[in-house]
């Protein structure tokens, strides 16, 4: 805990500090290192921005760090904080911001929360239970995200004793169990909500289903939907959650069609969202016939397509080389008074780039910018997937100028692309560019480079990056360890120096000239 506390304090003191608005959409992550190596997920509420003078927050973090380092137990640390007269009690905004800074250390979050709770409980001004709900929610999320469900439940029980337990707190706990693939425990948490005197209704039930679908447990979600039909009657909204899982999490057309038939068997009439999801699914896989069929049925049933449905139509028409029809849809959007957006143009640019029709894609991009529509990072990624190294470097500069990246995912995509093209030299050029854009390589970046270099026979160079990866605190890979050890044993006479190649212990240090690997 002390190391994570120190890291949080260093981040706060050294970085130009502004707390970002977190994404409103939830995402899931099954491992510590995602494709972009992001660690802040599934928390959809904005954190209050820190003022220019962060003295109160800095003092708060220092006091938490000091108490954690000198105390022998969390209980002693809390007693030290409560008895300390070195500063005022934490204010609610400062507490929430501190919890966000400490989010990677659930024990520190629990300590900070209890300190704030005890201070508010003994405060005569505001009375007991005056902590903002956001503080409780953030603590439960942080604990569950780290797999410390004991701390999460401790916060829930404390909220109950204070009489401030919310449905949102229990939903966060269910979501965290689902993200950890603890399906039974997520369902059990839902079932015990009434014992905690928290009202359970269909919206909470649907929150559980969404959490299960996001964690790729769609079959469990569907089974639960049907099993609880006596308590929560089947509706189009409930089936839409399952459809969304099969459309956007897995994009499994066979399952989508099966769920659609199940809706009919249960006498559930699809609504506009149901049709929109079906159009999205069929367009993703390039099924032009079924896309148009569902679109026509949607219109016949009296549902008015939104801009999202039209964007999907444009995408599949462009992908199937029906450009004239795609442009007719563009005209129809304007005629119906809808506003063309960047997603509309991306629906043309992406399939054009996938078909290597880069000139046509550039013409669409130029038309988009002339109309004042700013490209997104997805727009640039579509071009980057097809361009050579020189054009790629120019596009990266353009992205920077437009304030549209590049980000960690951009460079991971480029490294993978050039590795697959057997252009390891260009992959390493991209690696160099990544550092120039102040993007720190993550676990996924290192593994992509190391495995790519091994694939192309550049094992010594791969070993350099592997050692750098471990030196930056990332976990080693047992398979790579074995492969590198085999290589070094087979080439002991040539690669004898202890140096960075530390998989084989050396009794005597030798000074050798390292061979340069192209």
UniProtKB/TrEMBL annotation:
The lineage of its organism: Eukaryota, Viridiplantae, Streptophyta, Embryophyta, Tracheophyta. It comes from Triticum aestivum (Wheat). PPR repeats lie at residues 271-305, 341-375, 407-441. This is Pentatricopeptide repeat-containing protein-mitochondrial domain-containing protein. Keywords: Repeat, Transit peptide. Residues 142-230 form the Pentatricopeptide repeat-containing protein-mitochondrial domain. Gene3D superfamilies: Tetratricopeptide repeat domain. PANTHER family: MEMBRANE-ASSOCIATED SALT-INDUCIBLE PROTEIN-LIKE, PENTACOTRIPEPTIDE-REPEAT REGION OF PRORP DOMAIN-CONTAINING PROTEIN. The keyword Repeat applies.
């Amino acid at each position: 805990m002390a190391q994570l506390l120190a890291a949080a304090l260093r981040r706060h003191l050294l970085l130009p500090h502004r707390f970002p608005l977190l994404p409103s959409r939830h995402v899931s992550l099954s491992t510590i290192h995602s494709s972009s190596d992001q660690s802040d997920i599934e928390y959809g509420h904005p954190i209050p921005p820190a003022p220019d003078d962060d003295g109160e927050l800095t003092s708060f973090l220092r006091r938490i760090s000091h108490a954690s380092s000198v105390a022998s137990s969390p209980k002693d640390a809390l007693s030290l904080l409560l008895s300390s007269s070195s500063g005022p009690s934490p204010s609610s905004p400062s507490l929430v911001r501190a919890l966000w800074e400490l989010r990677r250390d659930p024990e520190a979050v629990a300590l900070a929360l209890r300190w704030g709770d005890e201070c508010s409980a003994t405060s005569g001004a505001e009375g007991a239970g005056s902590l903002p709900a956001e503080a409780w929610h953030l603590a439960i999320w942080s604990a569950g995200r780290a797999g410390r469900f004991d701390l999460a439940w401790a916060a829930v029980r404390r909220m109950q004793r204070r009489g401030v337990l919310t449905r949102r707190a229990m939903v966060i706990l269910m979501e965290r169990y689902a993200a950890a693939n603890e399906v039974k425990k997520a369902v059990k948490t839902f079932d015990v909500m009434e014992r905690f005197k928290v009202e359970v209704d269909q919206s909470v039930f649907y929150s559980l289903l969404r959490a299960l679908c996001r964690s790729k447990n769609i079959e469990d979600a569907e089974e639960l939907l049907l099993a609880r039909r006596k308590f929560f009657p089947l509706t189009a909204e409930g089936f839409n959650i399952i459809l969304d899982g099969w459309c956007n999490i897995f994009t499994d057309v066979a399952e989508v069609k099966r769920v659609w038939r199940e809706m009919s068997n249960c006498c559930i009439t699809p609504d506009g969202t149901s049709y929109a999801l079906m159009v999205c699914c069929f367009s993703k896989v390039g099924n032009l016939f079924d896309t148009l069929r569902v679109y026509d049925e949607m219109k016949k049933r009296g549902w008015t397509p939104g801009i999202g449905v039209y964007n999907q139509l444009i995408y599949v028409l462009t992908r199937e080389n029906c450009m004239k029809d795609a442009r007719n849809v563009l005209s129809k959007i304007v005629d119906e008074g809808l506003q063309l957006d960047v997603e509309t143009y991306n629906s043309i640019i992406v399939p054009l780039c996938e078909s290597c029709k880069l000139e046509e894609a550039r013409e669409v991009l130029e038309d988009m910018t002339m109309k004042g529509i700013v490209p997104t990072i997805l727009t640039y990624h579509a071009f980057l997937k097809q361009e050579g190294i020189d054009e790629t470097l120019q596009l990266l500069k353009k992205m920077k100028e437009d304030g549209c990246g590049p980000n960690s995912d951009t460079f991971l995509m480029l490294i993978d692309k050039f590795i697959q093209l057997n252009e390891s030299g260009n992959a390493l050029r991209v690696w160099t560019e990544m550092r120039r854009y102040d993007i720190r390589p993550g676990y996924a970046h290192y593994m992509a480079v190391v495995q790519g270099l091994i694939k192309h026979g550049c094992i010594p160079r791969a070993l350099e990056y592997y050692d750098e990866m471990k030196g930056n605190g990332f976990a080693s890979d047992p398979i790579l360890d074995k492969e590198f050890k085999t290589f070094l044993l087979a080439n002991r006479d040539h690669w004898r120096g202890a140096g960075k190649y530390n998989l084989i212990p050396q009794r005597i240090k030798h000074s050798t000239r390292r061979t340069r690997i192209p």
